[in-house]
Design brief:
The complex is a heterodimer of chains A (378) and B (542).
Chain A lengths: L5 H19 L5 H24 L9 E9 L4 E7 L3 H22 L4 H14 L14 H29 L12 H24 L12 H23 L5 H23 L12 H18 L25 H7 L4 H21 L3 H17 L4
Helix pairs in contact in A: 1-2, 1-4, 1-7, 2-3, 2-4, 5-6, 7-8, 9-10, 11-12
Chain B lengths: L1 E9 L8 E8 L4 E5 L6 H7 L3 H4 L4 E8 L4 H9 L3 E4 L12 H11 L4 H14 L15 H13 L5 E5 L7 H18 L2 E5 L3 H4 L5 E5 L7 E5 H4 L8 H8 L9 H14 L19 E10 L2 E11 L4 E6 L5 H9 L6 E6 L2 E2 L5 H5 L2 E4 L12 H11 L6 H10 L15 H13 L5 E5 L7 H16 L3 E5 L3 H7 L2 E6 L2 E6 L1 H7 L6 H5 L8 H12 L1
Parallel strand pairs in B: 3-7, 3-8, 5-6, 6-7, 12-17, 12-18, 15-16, 16-17
Antiparallel strand pairs in B: 1-2, 1-4, 8-9, 10-11, 10-13, 13-14, 18-19
Helix pairs in contact in B: 4-5, 4-6, 6-7, 14-15, 14-16
The chains are: A mainly alpha (378), B alpha/beta (542).
Chain lengths: 378, 542
């Protein structure tokens, strides 16, 4: 066991710093926010260094393991560790954070606090496409940032391919670490140039127009307070084994955060173009989720609950399998099954309608269908 | 609709004003073409109409800009976004969402427009720009022209009275550019939208423009504006038809080939004699420097080249033309080894180099890709050249690099950061970076994209110089006029095959789609450029 929880520090430092920055909140203290972000990111990078230097490459499996029991019923643990592959990513991610904070130093003039907070939190905690629609309206700029990041991905990949070819024709080959510079520098500079162009295009389309209001002090404080309560409750439960007080504090914190976000969201004047009415498919999907959750969370007599928890370390073994729980988990697949069924009935109907040439049209319709399905949850 | 009264603007930290004492008046429902060399302040002028200058750019503005009764400087870009739709050069860098419909809705959602109203507006712009079939498509799956049409549609979603476009076609191939320009002309004609358009490809739009505003470039800051036919005769550089019309004193100045034909028919009927003498022969005896032998290339299931054989000799300048996706770029990439042929052979200087590494081939072949920015990463222009030399393990001959920069006409830019240079200059640096090994062959992919007339003219001079020194050059281009000016030989491609190969007069003269303006005016004479025509007329007259 490690004397100091380096991994926890590497993960929680940026998140705590992001929360602090959000709470400090006004753009007029931009210098302070920047300094704070830089300090936090540097510190975040420094605490990953012991992970790198202390890593024993000769030893297989997870290292720097931190394990605390969390929710006994779900056999959930607070369990951290790095293996030989991820130690590099931890280092890279922390280093990238420092780079991005520095890169954004001069460029980001407005919404400084939100930008850094969003980045620090997003970089560590969130990376899922589906989350765009779930980001609270109060954080509308964050949702926009996420969607831009996602639209940037394909462009950046194309760009990278072009750069690789362009450098190859100049006789460039990759021999060592230094040789990556000609590949990444144009990508980075090109990306920043595109970011500026995008900022200009968004200004020309009036993006900032609905966004010129200040966060009231009360909301800011209760948001930070709520997050602090959440964290405190969690620590109480985890470290000091308080089975009632901990969860209670967490519930209080979560409740106040939700209320504040909801009230802030109502202040953001924004409409949505797409309407996603609740349909039978959604009911079925929700039901499937409930069934799967019930099967896992409640100790039903006659079910082998050990099969839920698979544990690959320290030795690899075949996981247990319980048929009933397997079937219950299949409930999570309901939305996919529904989409598949819809696609098949549709293409069958189209083929019956107009014969062979309809195949292309059927594919197009189902693609559209699949897309509007994924936009759910708003 | 739009008026500029004594407008001057200087960017923060700049010594020279970008605009000085500009007076303009653009009436409602007109299509105005804004022309001028790179760096003349076109983008700055356009950005004054919606307040991006000075709100986004910083700097010092004086004078008064009025757009539809609003003053953009006071109103801020946020308010002006309702009145002025703005479209930028790069279709990739203006999107926030990843699906067409969502992108169109983005600005409306932010403005909290009720959903009912939003749906009407979106249907409207989808129809206006023929985007309805693409509404659920992801943006990254669209072609450049389609993307630029989405950008225009997004700019029109607020129903602005003015549409401003900053070289919207400079990153597009000619077919996509044509689509975009046609859409603009239709919007102007059908809806009475006031359109202000900065554009290099004058020959495509000049006949639709009600008026032309010409910025004369650095230093002088002079602005010429007025009805199209009055301004065009005063410009230094113009499309070939206008240039010929001016040289021969045709009045009123023809703007379309159809109008020009009235004059050229009359002229031709008075001329006697047959076709002008064929241009001097290019070397055919020498051994080919570059050759493809029965090359097949396939991407996944799609055949890209189908049994292509081509030989290029030293001292030959070949223009490779054809529709999008006909395999032109693939052919160039096969020549340098970036694409491996499925079957067939690639020969370089009498040696079979099929399967050799890109780096070793590129020491003897320079290849300039479509986007020169992908090459540039060093701190100075001179360093770019030296890094290539070092990559190839050649001695770091700084004199050689400096001499090449001088030849490229950018010796005074040697210590500048390449990405800060203009499009034309950046391309020169990239060209230097691939040509510094003194290769015997040069391949260029769309070298005229985004260049103004002056830059094209000096590029033509540069390429001819290399050809005369015995280099073999292949350029892929859609630019008919440019190919007519420089090429000794034109190769037409279609669906991965070579369908025509011969002297420009023969290949381009016979195909109406690839014929330059002059060849259309004087069919069957073998004249392709204004120069050909003047020389031909002079020899016939004497």
């Amino acid at each position: 066991m490690q004397s100091f929880p380096w991994l926890s520090a590497a993960i929680w430092l940026p998140i705590v710093a992001g929360t602090l920055i959000l709470a400090s909140g006004r753009d007029r203290s931009a210098a302070l926010v920047r300094t704070l972000a830089l300090a936090a990111s540097l510190l975040g990078f420094l605490v990953t260094l012991p992970l790198y230097f202390g890593f024993d490459a000769a030893q297989p499996g997870l290292q720097f393991v931190e394990k605390l029991p969390w929710i006994e019923r779900l056999n959930a643990h607070y369990y951290l560790g790095v293996d030989g592959i991820s130690v590099w990513f931890v280092l890279l991610s922390a280093f990238m954070t420092v780079l991005v904070v520095i890169a954004g130093w001069e460029v980001i003039e407005q919404k400084v606090a939100q930008y850094y907070a969003a980045f620090l939190v997003l970089n560590y905690a969130v990376a899922v496409r589906a989350l765009v629609g779930l980001i609270p309206r109060a954080f509308h700029p964050v949702a926009v940032v996420v969607s831009i990041a996602l639209t940037f991905v394909p462009t950046t990949l194309r760009q990278f391919q072009a750069i690789r070819e362009a450098q190859a024709i100049r006789g460039h080959h990759v021999r060592g670490l230094r040789d990556w510079l000609p590949l990444f520098l144009p990508l980075l500079v090109g990306g920043l140039e595109r970011a500026l162009q995008l900022a200009e295009a968004m200004t020309a389309r009036g993006f900032a127009s609905a966004d010129r209001q200040t966060l009231p002090a009360a909301a800011r404080l209760s948001l930070a307070g709520g997050l602090a309560l959440l964290l405190a409750g969690w620590l109480l439960q985890l470290a000091w084994r308080q089975p009632i007080l901990g969860p209670a504090l967490m519930a209080l914190g979560a409740g106040s955060v939700v209320v504040v976000l909801w009230r802030l969201g109502r202040r953001v004047p924004r409409t949505t173009y797409r309407r996603h009415p609740w349909q039978i498919a959604d009911t079925l999907g929700a039901l499937g989720g409930v069934v799967a959750a019930a099967a896992c969370a409640v100790a039903w007599p006659g079910l082998d609950r050990a099969s839920i928890f698979y544990y690959p370390y320290p030795t690899l073994s075949l996981p247990d399998f319980d048929v009933v729980i397997g079937l219950a988990l299949g409930g999570l697949l309901l939305p996919a099954a529904l989409a598949l069924w819809q696609r098949m009935t549709r293409s069958a109907a189209n083929a019956a309608d107009s014969g062979a040439p309809a195949v292309g049209a059927a594919v197009e319709v189902s693609a559209q269908e699949a897309w509007s399905g994924s936009g759910g949850g708003r | 609709m739009i008026t500029f009264e004594d407008v001057s603007f200087t960017y923060a930290g700049a010594a020279q004003p970008a605009l000085s004492h500009v007076h303009l008046a653009l009436p409602e429902a007109t299509l105005t073409l804004l022309v001028g060399p790179s760096g003349a302040g076109k983008s700055t002028l356009l950005r004054c109409t919606n307040g991006l200058v000075p709100h986004f750019s910083g700097g010092t503005l004086s004078g008064r800009v009025m757009v539809g009764g609003q003053e953009p400087v006071l109103a801020t870009p946020q308010v002006m976004s309702r009145h002025v739709g703005f479209v930028f050069q790069n279709p990739e860098a203006q999107f926030v969402m990843n699906v067409v419909e969502d992108e169109l809705a983005f600005a409306l959602e932010n403005a909290a427009m009720p959903r009912q109203e939003m749906r009407i507006r979106i249907e409207e712009v989808l129809d206006l720009l023929d985007l309805a079939p693409l509404r659920a498509r992801r943006l990254e799956t669209l072609s450049g022209g389609e993307r630029q049409r989405v950008a225009i549609a997004a700019a029109l979603a607020f129903r602005p009275a003015v549409l401003v476009l900053d070289e919207p076609t400079s990153q597009l191939d000619p077919q996509s550019a044509e689509d975009v320009l046609n859409a603009l002309v239709r919007l102007n004609a059908d809806l009475g939208l006031t359109v202000l358009l900065a554009e290099h490809r004058m020959e495509r739009v000049v006949q639709y423009a009600d008026q032309v505003v010409a910025l004369s470039g650095r230093g002088g800051g002079g602005v010429l504006s007025g009805p199209t036919r009055e301004v065009l005769p005063q410009l230094d550089l113009a499309p070939p038809l206008i240039e010929l019309g001016r040289a021969l004193g045709w009045q009123p100045l023809p703007l379309t080939t159809k109008e020009g034909m009235r004059f050229s028919r009359a002229l031709a009927s008075r001329l006697s004699g047959d076709r002008a003498a064929a241009p001097p022969d290019r070397p055919t005896g020498a051994a080919p420097r570059l050759a493809l032998r029965a090359v097949h290339v396939r991407y996944a299931d799609q055949p890209a080249l189908r049994g292509v054989s081509l030989e290029v000799r030293p001292g030959e300048l070949v223009a490779l033309m054809g529709r999008n996706g006909s395999g032109k770029t693939t052919l160039l990439k096969t020549l340098v080894g970036l694409v491996k042929p499925h079957s067939g052979q690639v020969w370089l200087e009498g040696r079979n180099v099929t399967g050799e590494s890109v780096a070793s081939i590129c020491q003897r072949v320079g290849y300039l890709p479509q986007d020169p920015d992908a090459l540039l990463f060093a701190d100075t222009a001179l360093d770019e050249l030296r890094i290539t030399l070092r990559n190839h393990g050649l001695s770091d001959a700084s004199e050689r690099a400096a001499a090449l920069l001088a030849r490229l006409g950018i010796a005074d830019r040697a210590d500048r950061y390449p990405r800060d240079l203009s499009v034309g200059e950046r391309q020169r640096v990239a060209l230097g970076a691939v040509a510094v090994t003194h290769p015997g062959a040069l391949l260029l992919d769309e070298p005229t994209r985004g260049l103004d007339y002056a830059a094209k003219r000096s590029l033509a001079g540069l390429l001819r110089g290399w050809r005369d020194e015995g280099a073999a050059l292949v350029l892929v281009t859609h630019d008919v006029e440019f190919a007519a000016t420089v090429a000794d030989r034109v190769v037409l491609m279609s669906q991965g095959e070579i369908i025509a190969d011969g002297p420009p007069a023969e290949v381009m003269g016979s195909s109406p789609l690839f014929a330059p303006q002059i060849a259309r005016l004087f069919p069957d004479r073998g004249w392709l450029t204004v120069e050909d025509c003047r020389r031909g007329l002079a020899s016939l007259a004497s």
